[in-house]
Amino acid sequence: MATESMSLLGLEKTSLRQQALAALRRAITTGEIAPGTHLVETELSETLQISRGTLREAMRQLQQEGLISAGPRGRLSVRHLDAKEICDIFAVRAALESLAARELCALEDRAQVIKELRRALEEMDRASKDGLEERIEADLNFHRTLCGLTGNETLLHSWGSLEGNIRMSIMFAGFERAAQNMSVKRHGEIVDAIETGDAAKASEAITEHMDGAAKVLVG
Amino acid sequence: MATESMSLLGLEKTSLRQQALAALRRAITTGEIAPGTHLVETELSETLQISRGTLREAMRQLQQEGLISAGPRGRLSVRHLDAKEICDIFAVRAALESLAARELCALEDRAQVIKELRRALEEMDRASKDGLEERIEADLNFHRTLCGLTGNETLLHSWGSLEGNIRMSIMFAGFERAAQNMSVKRHGEIVDAIETGDAAKASEAITEHMDGAAKVLVG
DNA sequence: AACATGGCAACTGTCAACAGTCTTGCTTCC
DNA sequence: GGAAGCAAGACTGTTGACAGTTGCCATGTT
Question: Sorted alphabetically, which PROSITE patterns does this protein's record hold (chains A, B) (predicted)?
Answer without folding.
Answer: HTH_GNTR (PS50949)
